[in-house]
Target: Putative HTH-type transcriptional regulator CdhR
Amino acid sequence: MVVTEEIGVPSWDLYELSIPCTVFGKPQPDLADPWYDLRLCGTGARPEEEGDGTAGGHGLSLRTRYGLDDLIGADTVIVPSVPDPCVEEGRPLPWELIAALRRAHEAGARMVSLCTGAFALAEAGLLDGRRATAHWMHTAQLAERYPKVHVDASVLYVDDGDVLTSAGLTAGLDLCLHLVRRDLGAHVANQLARRMVVPAHRPGGQAQFIELPVPADDDEGLAPVLAWARANLDRPLTVADLARRAAMSPRTFYRRLQAATGTTPLQWLLDQRLGRARSLLESTDLPIEKVGELSGLGTANNLRHHFLRHLGVSPGDYRRAFPGARANGTGRTRTRV
Model:
C-alpha cells in the first residue's frame, strides 16, 4: 500500500489508510493460511512545514519501512488516497510515485484505489478507457482532469479486472472485502466481515449516496423483513410478499427499500440470491441444480443465465476457481446448508 508522506497525513485520511491494514494486515490463519503479506510503501519525502498543522497533517506523519521500489513485484498495489492539494489545487503528484505505479502495473500487479487514490491511477494512465469511481465529492474533478476515464459517480466501487477503484470512506472497506471474496471466497470474506462487525457484502453497483431520513422511534425499519427474506431465499418471494410481511403497501415498501439500499426490491433479491449461490458453490459440493434451488434462482439453466450475465462465468467455472476452498479445513459445512 502506498503512503504519501510529502505533506503529512491529514487526520481524515487515516480511515482509508487503516482499512487495508485491518483487512489485509492481520493474519487470519483459521480463515486462510497463508494470509496476505501487507507492506506500507512510502514516497520517501519529508512532510513540509504547515504552521500549526491545521491545513496539513495535524502534526502527524508516517515513516515506512518500504519504499516505492517495493511496489514492483507486488501482486496487488493499493493507493488509499492522495493529498488534498493534489485534488483541490491540482498540485502534481510525485513523479516517482506515478512511475512506480506504471512499472508495477506493467509487471502484472492488480491496481486498486480507494477514494482519491483514483487520481494517482488516472495520472499514471491506468484508468484510460476504463470505468472508474471515487468519492462523489471528487468525481467531477476526476472526470474534468482526466477525460479519457469513464467516471461513474454513483457506485460504491468498480471492478475492472486488474484495475479496481472505490468511492470514499466505507466504500473502501466494501472494495477490500470484495478483493478477499475474489481471492479466498465468500466464506472467508463473510467471516472476516463478521469479525469487523460490518455488512459482509454490498454490491459495487449500490448507490454511494442514499437519501435516508432518520426513522421515527417507533419505526422498526426494514431489517426484520430483509433478514427473513435472506433466510427464505429458496421460496418464490415477491414484492407483495415482502410488503405484506412488513405491513406496508407494495408501493410504500418499494419506496422505503429503494431509499434505504439504493436499489429496487427485485434487484435486491437477485443480489442476495446470487450471493447465496456463490457461497454454496464455494463452500459445498452440492449439485448445480441444488444450488439453484436453495438460492431461489431456479433451474440450473436459470442459474447459469444469471451467472453469465452478472459475473461473466458459468457456475461450473466459478466453482472450479475454488477447488481447495471446500476442503481446506476452514470449518465450512459440506453436508448441511
